[in-house]
Write a structure and sequence with these properties.
The complex is a heterodimer. By secondary structure, chain A is mainly α. Chain A has one domain (27-247). Chain A is built from 9 helices and no strands. In chain A, helix 3 packs antiparallel against helix 4 (77-116). The longest helix of chain A is centred in the middle third of the chain and has 40 residues, at 77-116. Chain B is an alpha/beta fold. The longest helix of chain B is centred in the last third of the chain and has 18 residues, at 170-187. Chain B has a single domain, classed as 3-Layer(aba) Sandwich (Rossmann fold), CATH 3.40.50. The two termini of chain B are 36 Å apart. The chains are: A mainly alpha, B alpha/beta. Chain A: This is ABC transporter permease. Chain A: It holds the Pfam family MlaE. Chain A: Keywords: Membrane, Transmembrane, Transmembrane helix. Chain A: The chain crosses the membrane at residues 41-65, 139-167, 187-212, 224-243.
Amino acid sequence: MLIQKFLTRFGRYIELMGRTFGRPDNWIMFGKQYLKEMAQLGVDSIGIVLLISFFIGAVICIQIKLNIQSAWMPLWVSGYVTREIMLLEFSSSIMCLILSGKVGSNIASELGTMRTTQQIDALDIMGVNSANYLILPKIIGLLTMMPFLVIFSTGSGILGAYCTAWIGHVITASDLTAGLQHDFESWFFWMGVIKSLFFAFIISSVSSFFGYTVEGGSIDVGKASTNAVVSSSMLILFSDLFLTRLLS
Amino acid sequence: MIELQHLHKSFEDKNVLKDISTTFENGKTNLIIGQSGSGKTVLIKCTVGLFAPTKGDIIYDGRSFVNMKKKERALLRREMGMIFQSAALFDSMPVLENVMFPLDMFSDENYARRKKRAEYCLDLVKLLDSKAKYPEEISGGMQKRVAIARAIAMNPKYLFCDEPNSGLDPKTSLVIDELIHSITQESGMTTIINTHDMNSVMGIGEHILYIYKGHKEWEGTKDEIINSDNERLNSFVFASDLFRKVRNEMTESNK
C-alpha cells in the first residue's frame, strides 16, 4: 500500500516535471519570473546563509582548538579542519538542509495558496502552461543562485573563524591562515558546488510538486508545506550519501 | 456556440453529472442554476477543460474539445475568458498588470497598445482609478470587476463566470450582472454564468439550464420560468416569500 502510494506520487511528480520542462509560452515573461525568483529564493536567503555560516565557522574553529587539538598536533589543525568541514559538508549539504526549510516552505505555500485561490486554474484557462510558467523559473532561479550561496557560506564561515582569532584570541590569525591554506584541494570546492546544484533541484522541484498539487484549503497548504520540507530534507540526506561516494 | 453532448462526469464511483446535453448560443447570457452540490461548478469546469468528462463531448463552434490535441486546446483556451468565484486575481501584481497579463503573455502588440487595451477594459468596469492598487487593497466587488476586465482583455469568444455574485451585496451584484450582460451583447460572445442568485435569473437569464442532482431538470428562458409547472424548479426558484409574491402578481396580471 505504502509502495503503491509512493509510486503514484512519484509518477505524478514525473508527469509534473514533464509539463514543467517545456518551451516557455513567452520568453520575456519567463525572464521576468526568473529574475523575480532569483531575488526571492536566492538574494533573500543571503542574510540567513551568512549569519548561520558565520557562527558555525566560528564554533567549529573553537571546538577543534579547545577539544581536539593537543600538544602533538600542528597549530594549523583548527584552520584546516574548519576549511574542510565548511567546504565538504556544511556549505553544500547542511546549508541546503537549512534552505530546504526556508525556501521549500516558501515555494510550497506560495503555490499551494495559488492553487486554493484558483489562481493556477486562471492561468490554465488562459491557455498558459501553469507548471512551466510558475515552476521552471523557480528551479532555474535556485540552480543559478545556489552556487553563490555556497560560496558566501564558505566565506562567511571562514570569516567567523577569523573572528575567534581577532576577537576571542582562541587561535592566532597566522595559525588559522596556515591551516586554511594547508594542502588545499580545489576539487573539494567544486564538489560542494556540484552537490549544491543537485540539492537546489531537489528543494525547488519537490517543494513545487507539493505546493502545485494541493487539494483543499489552508490546512492542506500547511500540510503541503511541511511535506515539502520533510521530503526534500530526506532526499537531500540520501542523495548526499550517494553524491559524496560518487564524487570523492 | 457551445454544445454539450451527453456529458457525464464521475469521481471514482460517484456520478456527479449525468447525460447533460444543451446548446449555449452566441450573444446570449446563458445561466446554469441549481442547488449547492448539484454539479454546476463541475459542469462549468468540464466545459472549460479543468476536468475531463467521463463520457460525452463539448463542441466549440464545431470543434470537439474532448478530441482536441494539447496544442489545439491551448489555442482554443486563448479564446476563453473566465471569472472565478474568488475572482482569482494574481495577488503579486497590481490591478493593471493583472488585466495586462493575458495580453503580455499572448499578444503581439507593443507595450503601449497592450497598456491602452488594459486601461480600456478597466475603464469599461469603471476601475481605471484603481489600476495601481493591489488586489488586497480593493473590495470584493471591485475584485470581481477587475476579473471581468482581465477576462475580456483578449476579446474572448467564450466567457465563463462561476458564481460571479457570491459574497456580494445585492446592489453590487446587479452592477456585475449588467456589466456581463452588456459586454456579452456588445461583443456577441457566448457567455455561461453559473449562479444561484435569483436576481440574476430574473434579470439577465436569456437561456437558463436547471441542474438537479447532476442531471438536466429543466431548460428555458426567464419568462418561461414564471409559467413553468416543474415542481423542483419552482421550489428552487421561488423558495423565498418575495419571489413567490412576485410570481403570483405576474401570473395574475397576465390573466
